[in-house]
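Chain entry —
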Amino acid sequence: MKNKLILIFLAMLVIAVIGYGFVTRKVNTKEDNYAQKSISVDILKVENSKNARNVVYMGTVRPMYLEKIAFPYDAKLEELNGLSGDVLKDGEQFIKLSEDDVYKFMLSSGQVPPTPTDVPLDDKVKAMLKDATTYVCDGERVVVKTMFEVGDYVPKGHPVAIVRDNDKKVVIGVTGDDKKLIKKGKKVLVQKDGVDAFGKIMNVSDTPNTDTFLYDVNIDLGKSKFAIGDIVDCKVRVGSYDGIKVPITCVLKGKVDYVYVCDDENIVRIKRVNILDEYDGQFIVDGLKSGDKVIVSNMSKINENDEVIIND
């Protein structure tokens, strides 16, 4: 009898232990579910919108005005009032050739009548000589390069120097298809290393460049901060398209681009997206629809099918 009681007691003890374990596992399962649900996230309820469709080309910043200064007569260079990089003021005399050398040529070719040495040249001849031997800036100019030094003999038609103005332009080459969309007067966003400037299309060539087979487009930049020779990105608006804007940080990379969204029961779902454009820290994408709740925080802590708490 005593042994029978002991066996009954042991059987009840085993049943109690098994029951406790089942309850414990059940409680733990509930705690696990709560732990999964305890991840909180911020969401962005997205809406479809019209977005600018742009074409982007690389271009080179060039001077708006570039001049090679040459003269129609052989003569000695008497004055050169600037070197490469110097800024010349409006009305400043930059170059002067020998009037004696030019006058002798004019006499020998019959362009001016002989004048006795003791008689001053008349005003008309003086004006002709000044025009044929001097270069005076008709606006602010920057010296790009000089080819001769004072005292050198300059052959006619050979450039003495090259000057430019301070206004700048960008030249880009566009395809025939894009040429149909790009019109004179359109604004262009020009960018380099975080610096932005707006330009305006001055003209579009009618025939393709024989070197690139693209159509040259000249964009007026005015007195921008860009340096001559800079390679810049030029964004031209050519239309619009439907798309949804999302923060760049919420687009995740895998075999495809995707975002996390919450369904109506706060379950995490994956949606594949295609990036159409980038603007002001956002991607413009398709693959979403208006009303989708895109998760924008704690993406590294969640997985598909997790249940989450949405922050207010």
Summary: The helical segments are 2-37, 99-108, 123-133, 176-179. The chain has four domains: 1-38, 39-54+243-310, 56-63+167-240, 68-162.
